[in-house]
Amino acid sequence: AYMGDDQRFDYCYKYESNRPWKQAVADGESPLDDGKLYVAKFNDDGTGEWIELTIENPALSARFSSQAELLVFTRIAADIVGATPMDRPEWTTIGHNGETYWTLTNNTRREEPNVANPEFPNGDGHIIKTMDQGSEAFTWEFFILASSTRGTEGVFTDPDAAWADADGRLFIGTDGGQPDGLQDQLVVFDTTAEGDPEAKRLFVGVASDEITGYATTPNYEFAFINIQHPGNGLPEATNFPARPDGVTIPRDCTVVLRRRGGGPVGS
Fold first, then answer.
1. Which residue of 16, 46, 127, 223 lies most exposed, with the fewest beta carbons within 10 A?
2. 45: number of CA atoms within 13 Å, CB side?
3. What is the pLDDT of residue 264?
4. 5 backbone dihedrals φ, ψ, rounded to 5°
5. Which stretches of the chain drop beneath a pLDDT of 70?
6. How many beta carbons lie within 10 A of that of residue 197, not counting itself?
7. Which tens digit of pLDDT belongs to each residue from 121-143?
8. Residue 21's CB: how many other CB atoms inside 10 A?
9. Separation of alpha carbons 5 and 68, rounded Å
10. 174: closest CA among 151, 154, 196?
């Protein structure tokens, strides 16, 4: 399991169960009860290290009295072992070749870059792609810097929600003020295409919302998109999903898209 910690200057994590998860579940056990937690350190040469957060590490046993305490104060543990501070790592998703995509939403407080977060301040965010090379090592590269899309037809910023399908499409929902007068949106990339990634706009939200939680049915006939905090709860901004009346409080909801034609959603 891959996890981002959605705070400025916090970290990317990986959890590996000690047993195959299907075996653990078949035996009535949770694979989350027995495993190892790692935090990511990104190196300058496109490699990375998964550093285990364990009380067996002398640097951590000097600070924490037990593994339980360490896991309660995980951010402090990650600080101690020298993990790479990131620009609000949020969602992760695993691509069709086993790669992992990480959305880094933004960090307007960053005053100095590091190798995995090159823009400062980072108002637009970016997406990183990693590939594990065993339990304790990985390779990494930038998938896209959202700032590079400014001035293009596929402009988007503040990547947040992420979902990859088995055919190589990567769907990204945004959370933040979009350029060119756009609302938050859902874009899709064809990760199998050659050349620089190109975002294609699939869905646009309403004022002051956030696009989050995308999924489809197995045959791609239906897609589900969550609209979160439309208008920030203010009826003056929007009454979504009701008709505008300036009084009704907007509500979170799930929008269902149905495929038209023969191709999968997003094709």
1. 46
2. 3
3. 55
4. -110, 105
5. 262-267
6. 18
7. 999 999 999 999 999 999 999 99
8. 15
9. 19
10. 154
